[in-house]
Design brief:
Elements (H helix, E strand, L loop, with lengths): L12 E4 L3 H8 L4 E4 L5 H7 L7 E4 L9 E4 L2 E5 L4 H6 L1 H6 L1 H7 L5 H6 L2 H6 L8 H6 L3 E5 L6 E4 L4 E3 L2 E2 L6 E8 L5 E8 L10 E10 L2 E10 L6 E2 L1 H7 L6 H14 L10 H20 L2
Bound molecules: flavin-adenine dinucleotide.
The site of flavin-adenine dinucleotide (FAD) has 28 residues, from β2, α2, α6, α7 and β10.
Amino acid sequence: MLPQNKVPLEIAEYVNASSLEMALEALADGQGTAFAGGSDLWAQKDNGNGRIRSRLVNLNRVSELRGIGESNGIVRIGALTSVSEILESEVLVKYAPLLQRAADHFASNQIRNVATIGGNIANASPAADIVLPLMGLGSEIEICSKGEQPRNLALTDFFTGPGETKLESSELISAISFKTPDSDFHGTFCKSGPRPALEISIVAMCLAGNLRNGTLDNSRLIFGAVGPTPMRCTGTEALIDSRPIDDELIGEALDIMEGEISPIDDFRASKWYRIQMARTFLEQELNACCSR
Ligand SMILES: Cc1cc2nc3c(=O)[nH]c(=O)nc-3n(C[C@H](O)[C@H](O)[C@H](O)COP(=O)(O)OP(=O)(O)OC[C@H]3O[C@@H](n4cnc5c(N)ncnc54)[C@H](O)[C@@H]3O)c2cc1C
């Protein structure tokens, strides 16, 4: 039963868009909600927690939002790409196995078949798994709206709070892109939950950068589920950059990282447990860098 102040949300109008133009037209007055896989949206509709507006705009027939490709050193992934398609993509095997590692920790096959990369980003959960490797790869998102040129935004600048982003109600995410990683790019993804997949993260971490002789340059350290949004730990990154990774650096890095994250107690885990898991993941992955 729903709490007294929650009601299941009603949908007054349904648009089954067959082109990007039609989808943007249906969203232009700010009264529409984009529908991709529905794996977040449907749960929110039924529990009354969602932000569903009265017109539902189905994106599934919009071919312009599909496809994964590489051209001139840029990998571009359409927003409607499902988690299963990420796992099956030859382009991503070659350029972004890091992204596939996160996809391999994501839900069940049934959910992977419908859940999209655009939905994972736009839903703006602090525990959105696919966002972490995308930030590790330095991704930008392409945003479009009726009558406007698409605009690009760094994914790290996109989130403003839990469920909150810089996306206007008339806008769609059309694609995600990143530069093809350097040959010495190293990226890793760790996720903690009671089961290896089919679980919302209790803590997730991505560590990425250019790894040469036990030194990680241009490092990116991103955590999920330990703050209001997926977050970069820029202070820890600054410490790690260009310094040989040894026990002293690892000790300092763990303490700085702990000061940067802000986990809470909730029904999934305590703040204390989240801090311990974050420290364990970072220690484990920095140690793994030493041996490479
Ligand atoms: C059983 C279960 C297990 C799950 N496990 C995981 C997990 O392991 N890891 C994880 O990260 N998540 C998990 N999720 C959450 C969910 O599956 C993901 O967040 C998924 O990627 C959402 O994508 P979707 O296409 O289903 O989005 P939808 O539900 O269709 O939409 C989600 C939100 O994004 C908006 N939206 C969708 N596409 C666009 C677009 N192109 N442009 C602008 N806005 C858009 C919608 O309007 C809506 O607000 C799980 C969910 C369930 C039900």
